[in-house]
Amino acid sequence: MFKHLNKDLPASLVVFFVALPLCLGIALASGAPAFSGLIAGIIGGIVVGAISGSQLGVSGPAAGLAVIVLGAIASLGFENFLVAVVIGGAIQILLGILRAGVIGYYFPSSVIKGMLAGIGIIIFLKQIPHAFGYDSGQEGDFSFFKPGGENLLSELLNMFDHISPGAIIVTLLSLAILLLWENVLVNKNRVFTIVPGPLVAVLVGVVYFLLTRNTEIGIAEAHLVKVPVPESFSDFTSQFSFPKFGAITNPQVWITGVTIAIVASLETLLCVEASDKLDPHKRVTPTNRELVAQETGNIISGLIGGLPITQVIVRSSANVQSGAMTKMSAIFHGIFLLIAVVVIPAVLNMIPLAVLAAILFLVGYKLAKPSLFQKMYSLGKAQFLPFIVTIIGIVFTDLLKGIGLGLAVGIIIILLNSYRNSHFLHKEEVDSDLHIYKMVLAEEVTFLNKGAINRELHSLPKNSQLEINIKNTRFLDYDILEILDEFAVHAAEKNIKITILTKNGEVVNPESYSKFFITNANA
Questions:
Q1: In 3D, which of 60, 238, 229 has the Cα closest to residue 140?
Q2: CA-only gyration radius of the chain, Å
Q3: What pTM was computed for the model?
C-alpha cells in the first residue's frame, strides 16, 4: 500500500492545493456554510478513498450538484437538506447492490474525452481573472452564465478594470517554477521528484505576500484563500451541523434525496470512466464498489454537516498529472485537508489565489491539449462530432447537459450508421430484358433499418428478379418481416420474382416470408 509513497505523497499535496479552494468555492456556490465543503472534501478523501476501488480517482463536493443543492437548501433549510443527503447515500447503496454501475460503460469514448476537454477549457478560462487579481467569481462555479446577465466572457473583460500587479507577478513566478520543475529540474536530481513543484510555488506565493504586504506590488487579502479560522475548540465544533430527522416525512426531502442519488451516481460513473482513461496503467475501477464507496461518504457527510460527494474530474486529473500511483494519494489529500483546517487555517489564508490559478492553468491545458483535438478530428466525423458537441455543451451550459448533448449526437450517428448498414444491394444485368438484384442482409436487422430496406425494395423496376441473402443473418425484427410480406404483394403486381438464399445455400421461394424468416433466420 505504501510502496509508491514517493509518488503518491507529492501528488496528494498538489491535489490538496487544488481541492482546498474548490471545496470552499463549491460550498459558497451551493449556498451552504464554507465549512460544509471542507467536510465533504475530507470525507471524500479519507473515507471514500479508503473504500473505493479507484486507484487515481478523487472524491469531494461537486460543482455539478451546486444548483440542486442551492435550491434544496433555500426551500428546505440546511439541517433538513442534510437528511436528503443521508437518504441519497442510502439510495446509492441500493444502486450498487443492483449493479447500476454498468451504466457508465454505455457512454462513448468520444463523449468522455469531450467531457475532459470541456472541463479543461473551463478550468483554464476560469483561472484567467484570478491570474490578473480579479476574484469576483466563485472558485467552484463552472457555469458559463452568471447572475445579473454576466457570463464567463464578460468576466474576462471586466478583469481589465481590476488588474493587480502583485497577482500577475505571482502567477508568472508560479508558472515559471511549475514549468521549470516539471520539464527540467525533475530530470536533474532525485530531490526534485520528492518535493513537488506546486508546493514550492505555494511557499513562494506566501513569502511574496508577506514581503510585499502594504506595497504597490503587494497582494490584497481579498485575493487570498479564505478558510474559516476558529478561535477555540468550541468555536471549531460549532461549525458542524446535524440533520433534523423529523423532516424525513417531508416528501420534498425524499425527492431531493432521490435527485442527489441519481445525479451524484451518474457524475461519479462518468468521472470513473474518465479517470480510468487518464490512468497511464489503464486500470479498471469496479463501478458498483464505487457507488457503495460514494454512498458511505454521503451518509457520513450528511450526518456531520457536509455537502454531497461524488468523484470529481478536476481533482482526479490533477492527481493523475502529478504522478500518483495508488489511492493513497486521495487518502493523504483528505488527511492534509483535515490537518490544515484544524491546525493551520491562518497559514492557508496567506496563499494567493494567483498561485492556485497557475497550478490549474496546467491542469486545464493538459486536459484540453490542441493535439487531442487534432487526434479526434483525424478519427472522422463519428468520433469528432460527439466530442466537439460535448465540449460546447459543457462550456456553454453545464457538465450533465453537455454530456447529454454529446450522447444524443453519438446515438444519432449510430442510428444513421445502422440505417445505412442493414443491407447491401447489388445489381447484376444478365441482358437488356433481365435485371437481377441481390440484397445481402446484415447479421442483425431491426426496426431501425426498415426505412432503408423499404426504400430499396420499392425502387426495384418491373420485371426484375430479387435474391435476398440471409446466410449470415441471425436476427430479423418482425417489422422487417412485415415489410417483406407487404412487398411480396407489391412485387407480384410489378412482376418481380423473389427468391431467398438460406444459410445452407438453398434458394427457395416461400409462400409466407414472415413465417419462413421466423423459422430460419431467427432460429
A1: 60
A2: 29
A3: 0.70
